[in-house]
Amino acid sequence: MTAKTVAIIGSLNLDLITRTSRLPTPGETLHGISFSTGSGGKGANQAVACARLSRSKSSTSESAINVRMIGAVGSDSFGRDLISGLQRNAIDVSGVKIVEGWKTGVAVIVVEEASGENRIILNPGANFSITPDQFGSLPTPLPSLVVLQLEIPLETVVQILRVAKKLKIPTLLNLAPANILPNDVYHGLSHLILNETEAEYLAGQHGQTVSVSQELPRTCDLFHHLGVTNVIITLGKDGVFYSNGDTKDRLPASPVSQVIDTTAAGDTFVGAYAVCVADDRPVSEAVGLANVAAAAAVEKEGAQDAIPWLEEVLPRKS
After folding, report:
1. β-bridge mates for residue 233, sequence order
2. Residue from 184, 267, 279, 280 carrying the catalytic annotation
3. Which one of 34, 85, 147, 165 is most buried, counting C-beta atoms within 10 A?
4. 279-311 confidence digits (pLDDT tens)
5. What is the distance, to the nearest Å, from the Cα of residue 246 to the centroid of all Cα atoms in its chain?
6. If you ran DSSP here, which 8-state letter would residue 206 be given?
7. Alpha carbon of 314 to those of 65, 116, 288, 291, 296: distances in Å?
8. Cβ 13 vs Cβ 40: under 8 Å
């Protein structure tokens, strides 16, 4: 059987992570608890999640899913390290360009020790060298699923979605960070994943005035009306709501022993979901696996370092 290919087109960043007891107030200097660096970027994180959640860490056989990363890094040591990290996860990096004259993207992440909640400041660097004219078509062989986020230029994401639609390739858009898209881009979008904050912002832009938490079905219907097939709204500790128009359901959050760091949760969810739908499994199964995988991710520190392997997730489903 020919393996399916998931192509993730998006950002690669070096993460600079400070853990602190609380956030400083304006003008205040606060001692941190610890500092570390790690590989990140929503695109790269989702690629790692696809790779790890499509096979076990100890597996020597080929996965049923090939994972391809398409993006850009600067001509510096940060970029080379990020590429090496993807390769260690058996990800095809032939589509990752090293761009002269640009610096690799950097994310400054502050994590509150007690809650595990994070704040992120993003400096995109070479991620913004990815321009629409580079995507008159999609790289061959054509993938089974294209996964996108919004940490590369918005106009590039729009171009890729339009090209994928013409080529009849299913698309998954993680609408993070939230931004306004042309309405025609939603039409034909196979999968839309966003969190409650992002959903509330975008619903407000389309005239919905009630809170998303009170009107989850109505919010999903808004995106269905725009042409999206499957809408998934993640709700953090309150679980996840999903809809394909006819069927709507809500899952509670998977149990967590202790929340250490929420940085990787969203990208782990997207990667797990993408692996399932690329493998033609039902959306309900995809949401279930993604929900459990995201819970496993918050029990560890970091971004890619926290993303679990398949054998760490499957026992938690039972």
Report:
1. 194, 241
2. 267
3. 147
4. 999 999 999 999 999 999 999 988 899 999 999
5. 26
6. T
7. 17, 24, 11, 12, 10
8. yes
**Does residue 76 carry a catalytic annotation?**
no
Q: How many CB atoms lie within 10 A of CB 226?
A: 18
Decide: 14 and 106 in contact? Cβ < 8 Å: yes
- What three-state secondary structure class fits 119? strand
Quick one: what percent of the chain has pLDDT higher than 90?
Answer: 72
Amino acid letter at 45? Answer: N
- What is the identity of the amino acid at 248? K
> Measured between alpha carbons, how far is 308 from 4 in angstroms, rounded to an integer?
21
For residue 281, CA distances in Å to 14, 248, 259, 272 come to: 33, 17, 29, 12
What's the rounded Cα separation, in Å, for the pair 132 and 31?
Answer: 43
Q: How would you classify the pairing of strands 240-243 and 230-234?
A: antiparallel
Condensed to tens digits (0 to 9), the pLDDT of residues 237-279 reads 899 999 998 899 999 999 998 888 888 899 999 999 999 999 9
Q: How far apart are CA 137 and CA 209, in angstroms?
A: 39
Structure token pair of residue 209 = 């005035």
Contact 121, 148 (CB under 8 A): no
Q: Residue 198 to residues 112, 271, 296: CA-CA distances in angstroms?
A: 22, 18, 23
> What does the pLDDT average to over 152-176?
97
